[in-house]
Amino acid sequence: MNQDSVIVRGACPHDCPDTCALLTTVDNGRAVRVQGNPDHRHTGGVLCTKVSRYAERTHHPERVLHPLRRTGPKGSGQFERISWEAALEEIARRLGAIAERDPEAIVPYSYAGTMGQVQGEGMAARFFHRLGASLLDRTICASAGGEALMQTLGGKMGMKVEHFAEARLIVIWGSNSIGSNLHFWKLAQQAKRDGARLVCIDPRRTETADKCHEHIALRPGTDAALALALMHELVVNDWLDHDYIARHTLGWDALRERALKWPPERAAAVCDVPVQQIRDLAQAYGTTRPAAIRLNYGMQRVRGGGNAARAIACLPALVGAWRHRAGGLLLSSSGQFPVQKQALHRPDLLAGKTPRTINMSTIGDALLSDASPTFGPRIEAVVVYNSNPVAVAPESGKVVRGFAREDLFTVVLEHFLTDTADHADIVLPATTQLEHWDVHASYGHTDVLLNRPAIAPLGQSRTNTEIFRQLARRMGFDDPCFAEDDLTLCRTAFGDTIDFQQLLDTGWVTLPVPEAPFADGGFPTPSGRCEFHSARLAAQGLDPLPDYLPNAEPAATHPAYPLAMISPPARNFLNSSFVNVQSLRDIEGQPVLEMHADDAAPRGLRSGQMVRVFNDRGEYRCVVDISTRARPGVVNGLGIWWRKLGPAGTNVNEVTSQRLTDLGRAPTFYDCHVQVAAAEATG
User: Fold this and answer.
1) pTM for this one?
2) Which of 237, 300, 405, 621 sits between 20 and 30 A of 88, alpha carbons compared?
3) Based on the domain organization, do 438 and 494 belong to the same domain?
4) 199 pairs with which residues across the strands?
5) CA atoms within 13 A on the CB side of 171
6) Residue 126: in which H helix or E strand, if any?
7) pLDDT tens track for 558-593
8) How distant, in Å, are the alpha carbons of 165, 261, 475, 571, 594 from that of 304?
């Protein structure tokens, strides 16, 4: 190591449950290595391939390092360099003029490009609240499952992840843990070595499924049917914890009646899996202690995703799995973090205004909508940060048309010229995680992590917080909160609920949460019980019990598009992040569609062939891989490639829809039917 080297503690900012602690080695002001911190128990010195290349991403030759103004058509990526003064002045002037007419014509668009509490919404929310802009419903990833947990368990909480190592049965449901939850997978492997049985439930034969004892390859969108059939078997075989049900649940009689309508034979027909697989899983789950479910968000990206997550979340209470610290369920731990959102986001700056809310998952339709009494004003400006909607939002043909509007003023804060940045009027260079302060919660463990800047901002890049501070100043927002620095915002994020000095000293603080959160009930629901029956849903006119809802696009109603398609992430990308990191793209090669041989043969397709994947919404092109990773009748379009790096300038979201889920107003990415043909074919 160079004698001038320093090692700086940080945290991974990306949308992953692991929220790893980082160590960045800096030589003469340049980050030369990013590694996992071995002292952090959840990280254990191990990083995924993606984040281990973070120095390559930060010092990428294509980093945007100074403000840019568009010079060519929208989408062309043609820009000229301008000064910060000119960029901020133009943005403030144009947003100010729109706000004078109607501030709701301005829409922020952001998500999890960073999961940081500070560089995420720490200053941005204050700015848009003070402006009176439209609110954004941030639904694109997890809101169906989150709403399901809220209605059933009372919040996004569950087992402590470290206790999975002690489980005797682990059901990995809708998760490719090897690729997207690496540190949980280490715990599952430890349990497996100690004799635990691992079962993977996933339409795709993932790398995780390869390593489990059993893989249940159900059809997309049929998870609730499987869960109800498991309940059926628990009832008829009396594999129930009657005492736990009586003391700590609500609505069992009604749920029992519904479950008895789902014998394994019925679910097997719906899920297209062997009946015996369902019976065997039910027996294992009903008789093994402790039994744990690691649920993930893939299974809730269908029309009935919220109901499916509710049904699965009911299972641990039926068998009393919550009694054990290594039993129960984990989808997300984020509800256990005491983030002080009122103090951080300052909704009081709305000063009584109640702006409309735009759903980020239907941004394509929103951008193409005219003013109306129900919709409100036509969108005149979008400020995008921590997201790449042109690549990641569903039905991207509409999203592209919306962002291509010449009368839409678009500002994008970015590291690179993404598909969305190519459509911007102004691009502002943002810092990466190695260049700023931030503080992080997690949705996979219960540690708060601090991120220290390891290097100075490259070029003229600025933090998100500083950009919004300066815009506020130019727009005359003189509230004292806009002068707070990033370290102050880090302190504000958790207030007095954590020891901030410990966070500064060590880099993380472990929350004092129970070892077995619901061993004695105490669910944070209105009743204090696990709510099989939700009065809150009933009050909304919705079914108060979980049920199976068929996909919105069943093959029978779309004979021209007979193949169900899911679009799980490529292993070396994270949503659309890292796609332009050359070493990672070299591993992925090119956009791929996995297809079973039974579906490829009648279409005359062979591995390595360029194909068209299409439906009424659009088409994209990729290379087909004839593989047992795909089950018959289902194709796997691995994403999310930048459109401009795809063979025909499109990506998998060209064919997904803007329909929303039953609960949580979330997208239905995996509720999608397509046809596949050789690229040279015309039909």
Assistant:
1) 0.96
2) 405
3) yes
4) 171, 214
5) 32
6) helix 124-131
7) 789 999 999 998 877 767 777 787 877 778 888 999
8) 31, 18, 44, 26, 24
